[in-house]
Specification:
This protein is mainly α. The protein has one domain. Helices cover 72% and strands 0% of the residues.
């Protein structure tokens, strides 16, 4: 072990000296170039709306579009009817198209219905580029600022954010990772001075109910009462609006559909355990039973929630709090897919913002780099080797962030004690 600690590569990993500004720009440009070529090439090689694999361009977005079109035809009640929903997908994309289920609460129809009023290629472009622009704007606000941060980062953040491999995954699936990351990051930016705005933004994330485990507990621990109240009111308002527009029965249909989606997609792994980035999926991929997988996920979720609540209850630096909450939200849920890892960009951005102002410690830069690249590798490595690389990197980033936050908390306490003694 002493030999490894004395080796140059170990020292480089520990210090992060290997990740120079030139390499950051170079790696980002390479990944961005690959993404652009892949997306443009795949689109040009497609046959109309169908790609080379016989799937609709935008894959999962086809589910959003089909659900929205059913509502526009006055058939909102069929949205959670798998047979009717699949029939609509076949009507739009052909009989051979695979089925992409509609798993979201009725709240998400407030976006799906307007998009379905457009031709499919236009709707897909509006969805992809609109949500991508929102994601970039929020990341820019996080890492921007003035003084030392602006001078250190410059325009490099744009390459890093655009070249982030989770971006390509989300674009390929036509999914909502950009919207989720944008709302999450914007809500964290609004705290603590604009709690009502933060609460509204958190409330708008209700279309991702699996992400609701850590956020309210963190806000409660921090005493952000106005944010909690605003989030609750926002969710109630969304339920009321969708009930008035689509009928309350649609909520009952959604509640009934959750059991089927939980069994098929999560427990049985129809979506592929290698695509899921959770502790639950890792246990199932290794052959563990469903009760055991839930038990291990529960232990990890409780530990993550408690650690995050402890940090949020302190006077710790808010950038570290924000980074920790973003990672904890991913770790605490059993249902996290690789396109959801766009949220990692929020964690990385807040951690970098803190690091540029206060310096980086051992292994932090290397772990951040691993978090940036892991969405590109996680599915393939898990599928070939059974190693849940994405989960392991998430755990490492959580530990590194928690360690830094604990150190900052202790520093704040020491400074506070000294200040109190000086006043006395």
């Amino acid at each position: 072990m002493a030999y490894f600690r004395q080796s140059p590569w170990w020292n480089a990993l520990r210090s992060g000296a290997w990740l120079t500004a030139a390499r950051i720009r170079g790696y980002s440009l390479i990944l961005l170039g690959i993404s652009v070529i892949a997306l443009v090439g795949w689109t040009l090689l497609s046959d109309g709306l169908i790609d080379r694999n016989g799937k609709p361009i935008g894959t999962d977005f086809s589910s959003f579009y089909a659900a929205g079109s059913l509502v526009l035809d006055g058939r909102a009640g069929d949205v959670y009817n798998m047979a009717a929903h699949y029939a609509r997908e076949q009507q739009i994309f052909g009989q051979a198209t695979p089925y992409y289920g509609w798993l979201y609460p009725p709240i998400f129809l407030l976006l799906a219905v307007p998009l379905a009023s457009m031709p499919y290629p236009v709707a897909l472009a509006v969805w992809q580029f609109g949500s991508f622009a929102f994601y970039l704007a929020v990341i820019g606000l996080i890492v921007g600022g003035i003084g030392k941060r602006r001078a250190a980062i410059g325009s490099t953040w744009l390459l890093v954010a655009a070249g982030f491999p989770a971006v390509l995954i989300n674009l390929g699936h036509g999914q909502n990772g950009f919207l989720t990351a944008g709302l999450f990051g914007a809500a964290l930016l609004a705290l603590p001075s604009r709690q009502i705005l933060a609460g509204v933004l958190f409330g708008l994330l209700a279309y991702k109910p699996q992400f609701a485990l850590v956020i309210p507990i963190a806000l409660l621990a921090a005493g952000q009462w106005r944010a909690i109240f605003a989030a609750g009111i926002t969710v109630v308002a969304l339920v009321a609006v969708t009930s008035l527009i689509f009928g309350f029965d649609l909520w009952l249909a959604f509640a009934a559909s959750t059991e089927t989606s939980r069994k098929l997609l999560l427990e049985q792994g129809d979506v592929g355990f290698e695509k899921l980035q959770s502790v639950f999926a890792a246990v199932r991929m290794w052959g563990g039973g469903i009760p055991f997988a839930y038990a291990i996920q529960g232990i990890v979720s409780i530990a993550v929630v408690c650690g995050t609540a402890w940090i949020w209850s302190s006077a710790c630096n808010r950038d570290l709090k924000s980074a920790l909450l973003a990672v904890a939200t991913l770790l605490a849920s059993p249902h996290v897919l690789d396109y959801d890892l766009v949220v990692l960009a929020v964690a990385i951005a807040f951690f970098v913002r803190h690091g540029i102002g206060h310096g980086f410690r051992d292994f932090e830069i290397s772990v951040l780099a691993a978090a940036w690249i892991v969405p590109l590798l996680s599915r393939g490595i898990a599928g070939i080797t059974g190693i849940p690389l994405g989960l392991l990197v998430l755990l490492a980033l959580y530990v590194v962030t928690l360690r830094r936050a604990m150190s900052d908390r202790e520093h704040v306490n020491v400074v506070g004690d000294r200040h109190g003694i000086a006043q006395a």
